[in-house]
Amino acid sequence: MNILRIMLNAPPFKGGAENRIHEISKVLAKKHKITVLTGGIPEGKEKVVDGIRYIYFGDMNIFTGFKNDSLSEMIKWLIDVSRYIFFKNINIKRFEGTYLRAMADWLNKNGKDYDIIINEFTPGAIRPISNYPYSLNVIHLRYSLFDTFEKSTKFGWKFNWLEVPYYYLFQQFLFLTNKNFIVCKTDDANAIHFLNKNAKIKVIHPAADPSLRKAKTEEKNFILYMGRIDKYQKGLDLLLEAFAELNCKEKLVVAGDGYDLLELKEKVKDLDIKNRVKFVGWVAGNSKRKLLTKCKFVVMPSRIEGLSLTSLEAAYCGKAILGTNAVAHGLPNVYLIELNKQDIYRGLITLLNNSKLRKKLGNKGRKAANKFSWESSAGLEEDSYNQIFNNNKLKSEITGFDENLKNIFKRPSF
After folding, report:
1. Which of 29, 43, 150, 315 is the most core-located residue (most Cβ within 10 A)?
2. Alpha-carbon dihedral angle through residues 54, 56, 62, 66, given to the nearest 10 degrees
3. What is the pLDDT of residues 123-174, one digit of tens each?
4. CA dist 276 to 221, 248, 254, Å?
5. What pTM was estimated for this model as a whole?
6. Beta-carbon neighbour count of residue 281 at 10 Å?
7. Closest CA to 41 of 25, 20, 52, 55
8. Do the Cβ atoms of 388 and 138 come closer than 8 Å?
């Protein structure tokens, strides 16, 4: 089968979604021809990684063509993007030379050569792939209306404010107008089904490096945050404020990078905890393994989260996670906290002072992690492709629908 995938970011894989796409494609590439359209490297460049052909379209930032933070510019930008998404109008001056135009042109020329096209929720790909009968949408992260309003009120009216509303609005459009979906967690399946009763949805969990299951662990005097440096989505603003109030010998190690890194470092200075917080940048391989296996526990106070790579890696390593409901998704190694500074503070104290609880949660996580593997996930995706290609219809598999439907309403999601 000739398979085309569309994703936002290119190797190296600094996010869980990108890692999931690559690992599953790597397994499938043993039997199928896999091409990935992506960004991050100047347009026109190609390379093969682990048997997967990557074609790059430069900067795939959805805000390409955005000039300033004025309200009038925001409105003009939204009108142009809406013309593109809803009315298939790609001949818009703002998008000349951008990935939106380049990708649409490439698909018009080459899309017919592929048996199935998979949109890994790249917003600009919604319209181009709607022209093809054999298409599938993979949702790694679902935004809610609550997230939209919270980000705008907390971080103000500025350019970055558009990110969550943009994803939210076009995800709703995608859910209502498409029929075949793969999601990473059950509550996302429930939410799509709530909007579109005709949608065919399959839940396929991601996985992590299987060698971590047998990794030897110990506890050094540090707590670990690992992931993208995004103060809003990852709750890092609240984490630093809570950690600043702790009187403990343990340090907070922050592993990752992102567009909020400099601002977060300034916040550390303002809170006078520079000597207690260590930024180590993006890590991989042995550096990542050492941090995961030697931390006391992992902290993930996220506002929005999929079934993240970090949470699975922590489970594989038998480490407890201090996390919000956005992180848990049934993982038994998560010690749940509410999304506020006081509860994060309480959770930090609880896990720091209770080694038996850390060990109990970690052991449960390691046991649960045995059900996750890239081979299993890739096999389920392959079944989905065959169902769509042979019958133009995905067989829905939403596990625990009635039990998990209530999760949608734990906060105002719609």
Report:
1. 315
2. 170
3. 555 555 556 667 788 888 777 666 655 555 554 444 455 566 666 777 887 8
4. 11, 9, 11
5. 0.82
6. 11
7. 55
8. no
Beta-bridge mates of residue 193: none
pLDDT band of residue 323 (cuts 50, 70, 90) is: very high
SS3 for the chain, per residue?
Answer: CEEEEECCCCCCCCCHHHHHHHHHHHHHCCCCEEEEEECCCCCCCEEEECCEEEEECCCCCCCCCCCCCCHHHHHHHHHHHHHHHHHCCCCCHHHCCCHHHHHHHHHHHHHHHCCEEEECCCHHHHHHHCCCCCEEEEECCCCCHHHHHHHHHHHCCCHHHHHHHHHHHHHHHHHHHCCEEEECCHHHHHHHHHHCCCCEEEECCCCCCHHHHHCCCCCCCEEEEECCCCCCCCCHHHHHHHHHCCCCCCEEEEECCCCCHHHHHHHHHHCCCCCCEEEEECCCHHHHHHHHHHCCCEEECCCCCCCCHHHHHHHHCCCCEEECHHHHCCCCCEEECCCCHHHHHHHHHHHHCCHHHHHHHHHHHHHHHHHCCHHHHHHHHHHHHHHHHHHCCCCCECCCHHHHHHHHHHCCCC
So what's the pLDDT on residue 225?
Answer: 98
Amino acid letter for position 224 = L
**Tens digit of pLDDT for each residue in 361-391?**
999 999 988 888 999 999 999 999 998 888 7
pLDDT greater than 70 at residue 336? yes
Bond before 42 cis per omega within 30 degrees:
no
- What count of residues does the chain have? 414
